[in-house]
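Re: beginner question about structure tokens

> Can someone show what the tokenized structure looks like for a real chain? I only ever see the sequence side.

Sure, here's an example I had lying around. Input first:
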Amino acid sequence: MFIKSKANIILKSAAWMTVLSLVNKLLGVFLRLFMASRIGSEGMGLYQLILSVYTMFSTFATAGFTVSVSRLIAEKDQRSGGDARLLFRNSFISSSVISAVATVLMLVLADTFAVRFLGDARCAAPLRILALSMPFMALAACLKGWFIAKLKAIVTASASLFEQIVKIAVIALFLNVFLVNTSDIGALCTGIVAGVTISEMCSFTYLFLFKYLPSRKQKQTDIPTESKKDSMRSLISVTAPISLSVYVTSVLHTAETLLIPFVFESYSGDRSYALSRFGMIRGMVVPVLFFPFAFLASLVSVCTPEISRLNLLPDRKPLFAKISSLMSLVSVISVAVGGLFFFLPSQIGNAFYPNENTAYAIRILALVTPFMYAETVSDGMLKAIGEQVQTLKFSVYNSVLRVVLILFFVSKTGDNGYLWLLVISNSFTYFLCRRRLYKATGVKPRVYTDILLPLISAIIGGITAVTALNALDFNSDTASCIAGTAIYLGVFGLLMVLLAYNRFKTNILRLRGKNA
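And the corresponding structure tokens:
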């Protein structure tokens, strides 16, 4: 009964999180469309540069606390609620100190990063404003870990949605009211990051109220069974490898991001063009490709604490079965999404970003979309079962590979070469993570059901959708995108059911023949 109720909680949480995540993603796409129309692809490129530095410092501030807290709380709840609360308090204190250091560093170094590394003094003011969000982001990371471990991931999803709504409202207020008469993309980016900072503050407040207002009404009498020192030691033992991983990869990723516009500029000889191409790829195309990942992301975040609990059991079969079923689902969905972007790049690109010529970039990156999805999920599964050191190694390998390719390959091929760099590097990381997951759990892809069936269905669905759109000849890009997507997904789903049923029927007949 307990197992059944827990399964129901997980399914309900996954369903609610999926809905909230999809709404959140839709709002995020709407926000990017609004920003792109206001600041253009060059402004999006400048904004991405600012975000690269911000991401590095925010990674330092959050220090992998969401993953480590969710895993440790899930494990300690099995033994003592007092231990779980003690560990959470320690994580709150630790994140406060680390985020304070990150804030001070970012405030002090804003001018240095803007002028020397980003090559644009307009980035200094936005970086200072973003620095103020660090403590709120770090503490919110701990709260998210707590709610995920308690199977209340819906709170984190609703907090993200609330954060997105606040961000849109504040950014719209700045761009359409306070900065309505300016076209200076530096000033406009300042207004945008003000919205980001205020939304982070509101998200923390939302989570904080959900965590502490109910707890005041409930008496918690159980006493921790471990000392503060032991609790802190367990927190550090899990958080340190994750933090080291994200620190190293974040620094390398920031170096990569800072190199790209300079490489584009040296290739084309035009700074404005370089920022525009960089903004188009990183600020427009990649977010669209990851938009459908909302369903998988919500499912994985709900399943991660359960996988951590199963990892403690001596019987490994339930753990391996859970990971196997999750990876099979990821494989089918990611191939479906990759096929959709590959066959309908013009329709999707023009529907989201008219006149930005994103179709070619979408089609190239569609080739690696299944690997990007599966690699992201595999990385999460490895961290859930204690393979943080391995994920650190893979992240470092991938980041070094990308920096080398940028210097020696992209510098000679420009933005087209950067697209193929993304294909190569994401494929490389996928195979590393998938190979390690197989070594650790014995879980490997089912060639027929996880790869062959989805691939056949995607090809037939894509050809059908393209043929139908050519015959119907829609005047609207949006209508063409919606119709093509509906036809593709309908054919894909129908073929998957038919092919899977045919396989099932063949296996039954084969078993009957053996028994006879």
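Each token stands for a local structural state, so reading them left to right follows the chain. Residues 55-253 form one domain.
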